[in-house]
């Protein structure tokens, strides 16, 4: 996968960072959230997010859940379930004629 490096500048008050909440941790979290946002808007696939974040799939699923992103397989399962119900309903209507 070809990559592009971007930089985002944010002006923040000096006092937001201290020993308990450092700048490096904030930058890492902002990067993670940016990647998750690209996943949410479907500009990245899950396997790409895994590679960029350097995590295992189950870790990615946890991060996705944390920010309210439904994993692709759950979306497909829901669609499949809806389709199966529609087919069964159509069969039932056809048999009752």
What order do the SSEs take from the amino end to the carboxyl end, as H and E?
A: HHHH
Largest sheet: none
**What spatial form do the alpha-carbon principal axes imply?**
elongated
Low-pLDDT residue intervals, each spanning 5 or more residues = none
Radius of gyration: 21 Å
Instruction: Give average pLDDT, whole number.
Output: 90
Number of strands: 0
CATH architecture of one domain: Orthogonal Bundle
Helix fraction? 55-70%
Sheet-strand content, in percent, reads under 5%
How many angstroms does the end-to-end distance come to?
Answer: 55 Å
Label the structural class.
mainly alpha
CATH topology of one domain: Arc Repressor Mutant, subunit A
CATH hierarchy, class of one domain: Mainly Alpha
Number of helices: 4
Describe what is shown at a glance:
By secondary structure, this protein is mainly α. It has helices spanning 23-40, 46-53, 57-66, 72-95.
Topology of helices and strands:
Blueprint: H1 23-40, H2 46-53, H3 57-66, H4 72-95
Helix pairs in contact: 1-2
Structure in words:
With 97 residues, the protein is an all-alpha fold. It has a domain at 14-69: Arc Repressor Mutant, subunit A, CATH 1.10.10. Helices cover 62% and strands 0% of the residues. The chain has helices at residues 23-40, 46-53, 57-66, 72-95. It starts with 22 loop residues before the first helix and ends with a helix.
């Amino acid at each position: 996968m070809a990559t592009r490096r971007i930089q985002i500048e944010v002006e923040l008050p000096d006092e937001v960072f201290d020993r308990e909440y450092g700048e490096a941790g904030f930058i890492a979290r902002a990067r993670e959230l940016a990647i998750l946002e690209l996943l949410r808007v479907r500009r990245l696939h899950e396997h790409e997010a895994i590679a960029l974040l350097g995590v295992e799939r189950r870790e990615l699923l946890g991060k996705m859940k944390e920010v309210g992103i439904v994993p692709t397989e759950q979306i497909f399962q829901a669609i499949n379930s809806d389709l199966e119900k529609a087919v069964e309903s159509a069969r039932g209507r056809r048999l009752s004629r």
